[in-house]
Amino acid sequence: MADLLTADAVREELSRLPDWSGDPTGIGRTAQLGSFPAAIAVVDRVATVAEELDHHPDIDIRWRTLTFRCVTHSAGGVTHRDIELAGRIDDIVRSAA
Amino acid sequence: MADLLTADAVREELSRLPDWSGDPTGIGRTAQLGSFPAAIAVVDRVATVAEELDHHPDIDIRWRTLTFRCVTHSAGGVTHRDIELAGRIDDIVRSAA
To answer: What digits encode the pLDDT tens for the residues B48-94?
Structure first.
């Protein structure tokens, strides 16, 4: 079981993830892609990583704008698994932009 | 510009779409697939249809549960384009289940 991060730890991690915001109950970011197909391609790549990590973000698709939210439901809050997933999502969004 | 459906017309259309609910402000359904990859495969197929119809549903991904919401934003409510998209989404979900 992954350890819950404290509020201070979440704040510190978020300082290294400038596109993310949140607190110990969950962290999230949005990303606007150039088109709807480009957004779906990002969803597909994030899905592959999510399966690899066995950790699945909530994803909301609003045409070409995506919202991701990460929380470790089994732990009841944000853990290092969420921080790792957030970083991987950033890599995918960055390479798609 | 697609015509807005009246409340009565939406109700009648929804009587033929038993998995959908809503009103003239929007219609929605959820679908639980067998796995996260199966859910993403449905998203991909819905995305292809959405591009073909140039009409894009809101999609929320919560692990293997999907929520779709259809409304014609340019018309300010539900039109026949939403009913058509809802039917196409049903076909995809049915063939994936």
So the answer is: 999 999 999 999 999 999 999 999 999 999 999 999 999 999 999 99
In a domain, B1, yes or no: no
Contacts B61 to A, Cβ<8 Å: 43, 58-61
Interface of A with B in 44-83 (CB under 8 A): 44, 47, 50-51, 56, 58-63
User: The CATH number of the domain where B12 resides is what?
Assistant: 3.30.1360.20
Mean pLDDT value across chain A:
96
Nearest residue on chain B to A65, alpha-carbon basis = B58
* Helix/strand/coil percentages in chain A, nearest 5: 45, 25, 30
Q: Per the domain annotation, does B53 fall within a domain?
A: yes
For chain B positions 15-44, those within 8 Å of chain A (CB to CB) are 36-37, 40, 43-44
Domain count, chain B: 1
State the smallest CA–CA distance between residue B68 and chain A in angstroms: 10
Q: What is the C-alpha separation between A67 and A61, in angstroms, rounded?
A: 7
Distance of CA B52 to the CA centre of its chain: 14
Whole-angstrom distance, CA of residue B43 vs CA of residue B67:
10
Stated pTM of the model: 0.96
